[in-house]
């Protein structure tokens, strides 16, 4: 804030009289510069380290000393110079206007970036010759290579609306237009790269990964986004470590120890090149091999890393990078760089001495017998290093595009082709042009490079995010090449963004087998993952799915419940149709009940034949022949109606079984009731002095018909209003479907049963009244006993029917039908058959009427 205060003070005009601006402190001079009508600035990390002495507080602090020349960054700076020279040679772009440049060294340090920022804004003059006008020394700036340094540069230039275009700063935070209103870049934001890396890790099934990042804006922001997206994709981070190139060796060694002890086989390295260098050095020292490295675009295509020394560590590395390109003429331009271009340039001298390992001018202090000297005429074409290597022009191409974007913005500003960029008074007047106008024009640039690549910026100053997925593979000569094995395009729909090529990938250790990196192996079908308390979600144990649920894919985290009519198989890996349960003729219970039913029918027919054969005997005549045959017929129907309850329920069988049961039993009870009434009336009439009317045969027929008809009416109403229908019962059993007949109307069902019960009660009452009949003709006693059995069976049936599960409900009902039918049949007809067949001597009129006749004689 103090620096901004000084800058603002220098830009304010003195009231009352003119005042000149003067610089506080010593000016910062560019390493490379050229005059021109319009100056553009550049900031690169040409040196990667700084040497800063501890202040003594007794004298002014010494200037920053930058060391360790970065040949790759030096190539970026020379690419900017090449593009500037190329633009100056064009007649259709900025005609009659020369573009100059001032390139500063930020030394990979935010402290040095602040000094470069001030120099680019103020210039190098100690005192301005004219009144402070607020105009800046440069109209636009290209830089920097690192996000943290770029943030410093953008914050410093933002208040002055000086556009900054970065070729290598990828931090997503720089897309914030409120904080960085004048920032642009020709490299995609890490907002997309982090998501692409998360999708990449998920694509290969790696759910347990380690992570190392640069402890700066680039690494922290990029890794934070990666972790967030990876978590949504189901990927867990075993460890996440942060380092800086300036950390102590002990700190770096501890991070490598964590990597070494980790169980994850995949390492996501979101590192700038400086941090990658120190980490790789320690990794080689500790011999950490076998890790599958997933790299960020900062280092994944750094050619200087792809050496034999690191092949055991980084072999098979994979990661996203921007597309490479070719810049015609750049190779030749780079090979012409020499100290002779500017003999006073310390940078060119340092570059030459570092490249050829020599001294341009011998010094007394360094003169030795083995010292090598050079004169500056050596040939760079014989040198292969990061400066001369133009096979992977990715970031250099971003610098090239950035220079052209600024040139076109300047051209449009001077030509007034962009609305709002200028007014008529500044058209074509380069001296009146201000950086604010260039900023407006830059936001609207949209052009196509000679290579066919389209350049434009979105509202946040970002280009379209497109990446290549590259894999480190060795060629036939044993050299490492960066092979494109996939693509990522953020402008496409989400399902089409990430596409793999049909190229085999080489994995860690030059293996062709994809490494596996999971905390827990995927659960087999039928088992679900259960999180272990205190462990990440990717660490789990496998539990079998509950009954009725399945898990047939490794992607699902939970078991899936089977549809209503399905159930899980034995392995819980698939849903199969539930077993359908109903009382069938094939099972033992069905066969047994069918046998009893047919036995009852057979016995009934046999008795009917016996009755028919002995129809003229006194016992048969005394038993009311017509009612006996009708009763036998109704009992036969009762036995047969039980068969309608066996088998798969259908619409017709459901309606038939209940109505047939109700009508046949009503007919049976009606016959028993008529017989009981006839017996009572017949014996009451034989008592002297009684005038009881005889129960004639037509009257018996009418009573049977009317009693049965009433049940028919009840059944008809039941079938008309709410008939029984087939029903799949899912509630009673979870693993099977119980096919049963829904009653439709419970009132109809209980009305049918109630009416039968009413007839049975009437029969019992009348039979009880006839209990004192003669012993020789004791049919009323047998009827009483049979009705007792009948009532006992059906009273017991009600709770058994309600509580019995599934097909046993039907079995209980069949059992009640057969038991009550056999009770009536045996109690009423067995005594008569016994006399007819086994005791024929008792089948006489005298024997039947004997006791009654004797009693009448004594009365």
Explain how this protein is built.
It is a single chain. This protein folds into five domains: 2-53 and 61-188 and 393-454, Response regulator (Rossmann fold, 3-Layer(aba) Sandwich); 190-321 and 464-510, Response regulator (Rossmann fold, 3-Layer(aba) Sandwich), CATH 3.40.50.2300; 350-391, no CATH class; 527-577, no CATH class; 588-858, Rhodopsin 7-helix transmembrane proteins (Rhopdopsin 7-helix transmembrane proteins, Up-down Bundle). It is built from 22 helices and 29 strands. The relative contact order is 0.07. The longest helix has 35 residues, at 651-685. It has 859 residues and is an alpha/beta fold. Strand 13 (266-270), helix 8 and strand 14 (292-295) form a beta-alpha-beta unit. The model is unreliable at 1-19, 687-693 and 851-859 (pLDDT under 50). The strands form nine sheets. It has an eight-stranded mixed β-sheet, sandwiched between helices. A six-stranded mixed β-sheet has the order 2-6-3-8-9-10, with helices on both faces. A three-stranded mixed β-sheet has the order 27-29-28. Helix 14 (588-613) packs parallel to helix 21 (807-838) and helix 17 runs antiparallel to helix 18.
Q: Approximately what portion of the residues adopt beta-strand conformation? A: 15-25%
Looking at the structure, the CATH topology of the largest domain is Rhopdopsin 7-helix transmembrane proteins
CA-atom Rg in angstroms: 52 Å
Low-confidence parts, pLDDT < 50 over ≥5 residues? 1-19, 687-693, 851-859
What is the residue-averaged pLDDT?
Answer: 84
């Amino acid at each position: 804030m103090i620096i901004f205060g000084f800058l603002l003070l220098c830009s304010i005009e003195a009231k009352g009289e003119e005042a000149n601006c003067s610089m506080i402190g010593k000016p910062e001079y560019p390493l490379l510069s050229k005059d021109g009508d319009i100056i553009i600035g550049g900031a690169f990390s040409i040196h990667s380290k700084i040497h800063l002495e501890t202040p003594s507080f007794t004298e002014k602090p010494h200037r920053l000393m930058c060391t360790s020349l970065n040949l790759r960054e030096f190539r970026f700076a020379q690419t900017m110079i090449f593009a500037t020279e190329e633009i100056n040679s064009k007649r259709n772009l900025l005609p009659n206007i020369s573009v100059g440049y001032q390139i500063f060294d930020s030394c990979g340090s935010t402290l040095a970036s602040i000094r470069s920022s001030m120099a680019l804004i103020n210039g190098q003059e100690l005192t301005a010759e004219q009144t402070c006008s607020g105009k800046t020394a440069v109209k636009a700036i290209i830089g920097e290579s690192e996000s943290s340094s770029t943030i410093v540069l953008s914050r410093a230039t933002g208040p002055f609306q000086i556009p900054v275009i970065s070729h290598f700063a990828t931090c997503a935070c720089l897309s914030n237009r409120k904080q960085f209103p004048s920032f642009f870049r020709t490299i995609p934001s890490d907002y997309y790269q982090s998501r692409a890396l998360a999708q990449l890790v998920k694509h290969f099934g790696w759910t347990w990964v380690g992570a190392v990042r640069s402890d700066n804006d680039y690494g922290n922001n990029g890794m934070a986004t990666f972790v967030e997206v990876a978590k949504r994709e189901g990927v867990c981070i075993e460890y996440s470590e942060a380092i800086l190139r300036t950390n102590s060796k002990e700190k770096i060694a501890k991070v490598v120890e964590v990597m070494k002890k980790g169980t994850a086989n995949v390492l996501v390295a979101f590192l700038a090149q400086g941090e990658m260098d120190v980490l790789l050095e320690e990794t080689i020292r500790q011999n950490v091999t076998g890790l599958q490295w997933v790299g960020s675009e900062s280092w994944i295509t750094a050619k200087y890393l792809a050496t034999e020394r690191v092949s055991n560590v980084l072999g098979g590395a994979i990661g996203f990078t921007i597309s490479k390109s070719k810049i015609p003429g750049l190779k030749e331009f780079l090979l012409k760089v020499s100290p002779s271009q500017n003999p006073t340039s310390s940078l060119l001298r340092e570059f030459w001495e570092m490249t050829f390992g020599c001294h341009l001018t011998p010094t007394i202090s360094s003169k030795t017998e083995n010292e090598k000297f050079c004169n500056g005429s050596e040939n760079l074409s014989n040198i292969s290093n990061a400066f001369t290597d133009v096979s992977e022009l990715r970031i250099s191409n971003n610098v090239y595009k950035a220079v052209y974007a600024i040139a076109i913005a300047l051209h449009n500003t001077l030509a007034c082709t962009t609305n709002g960029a200028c007014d008529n008074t500044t058209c074509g007047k380069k001296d009146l042009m201000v950086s604010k106008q260039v900023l407006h024009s830059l936001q609207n640039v949209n052009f196509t490079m000679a290579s066919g690549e389209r350049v434009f910026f979105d509202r946040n100053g970002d280009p379209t995010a497109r990446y290549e997925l590259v894999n480190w593979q060795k060629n036939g000569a044993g050299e490492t090449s960066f092979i494109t094995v996939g693509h990522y395009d953020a402008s496409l729909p989400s399902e089409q963004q990430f596409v793999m090529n049909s190229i085999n990938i080489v994995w860690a250790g030059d293996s062709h087998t994809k490494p596996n990196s999971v905390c827990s192996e995927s659960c087999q079908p039928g088992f679900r993952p259960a999180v272990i308390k205190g462990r990440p979600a990717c660490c789990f144990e496998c539990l079998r799915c509950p009954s009725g649920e399945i898990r047939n894919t490794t992607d699902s985290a939970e078991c899936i419940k089977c549809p209503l009519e399905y159930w899980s198989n034995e392995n819980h890996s698939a849903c199969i149709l539930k077993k359908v349960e109903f009382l069938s003729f094939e099972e033992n219970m069905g066969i047994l009940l069918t046998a009893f039913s047919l036995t009852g029918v057979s016995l009934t027919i046999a008795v009917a034949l016996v009755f028919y054969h002995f129809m003229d005997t006194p016992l048969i005549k005394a038993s009311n022949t017509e009612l006996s045959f009708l009763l036998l017929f109704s009992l036969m129907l009762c036995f047969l109606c039980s068969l309608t309850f066996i088998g798969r329920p259908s619409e017709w069988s459901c309606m038939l079984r209940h109505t047939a049961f109700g009508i046949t039993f009503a007919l049976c009870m009606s016959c028993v009731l008529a017989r009981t009434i006839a017996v009572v009336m017949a014996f009451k009439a034989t008592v002297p002095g009684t005038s009881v009317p005889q129960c004639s045969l037509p009257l018996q027929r009418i009573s049977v018909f009317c009693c049965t008809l009433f049940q028919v009416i009840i059944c008809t109403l039941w079938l008309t209003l709410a008939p029984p229908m087939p029903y799949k019962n899912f509630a009673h059993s979870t693993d099977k479907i119980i096919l049963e007949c829904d009653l439709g109307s419970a009132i109809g069902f209980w009305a049918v049963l109630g009416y039968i019960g009413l007839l049975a009660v009437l029969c019992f009452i009348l039979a009880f009244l006839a209990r004192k009949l003669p012993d020789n003709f004791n049919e009323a006693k047998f009827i009483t006993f049979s009705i007792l059995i009948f009532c006992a069976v059906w009273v017991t049936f009600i709770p058994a029917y309600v509580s019995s599960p599934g097909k046993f409900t039907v079995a209980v009902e069949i059992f009640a039908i057969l038991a009550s039918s056999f009770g009536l049949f045996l109690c009423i007809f067995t005594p008569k058959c016994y006399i007819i067949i086994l005791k024929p001597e008792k089948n006489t009129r005298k024997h039947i009427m004997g006791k009654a006749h004797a009693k009448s004689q004594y009365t």
